Amino acid sequence: MIAALLLRDVRRAWTGGGAVWPVAFFLLACVLFPFAVGPDAALLSRVGGGVVWTAALLAALLPIERLLAPDRDAGVLDQLAVRGASMSAVAAIKIAAHWCAFAPPLMAAALLAAGLLGVSGETLLRVEIGLAIGTPGLAALAVATAALVAGLRGAGALAGLLMLPLAVPLLIFGAGSLDGGSGALKLLAAISLLLCAGAPFVAGAALRMAD
Amino acid sequence: MTALALSDVAGARGGEMLFAGVSLALGPGEAALVTGPNGAGKSTLVRICAGLLAPAMGTVRSEGRIALLAEAHALDPELPLARALDFWSALDGGGPQAVASALAAVELAPVAQLPVRLLSTGQRRRAAFARVIASDAPIWLLDEPANGLDAAAIARLEHLLAVHRAAGGIVLAATHLPIALPGAVPVEVGR
Question: pTM for this structure?
Answer without folding.
Answer: 0.92
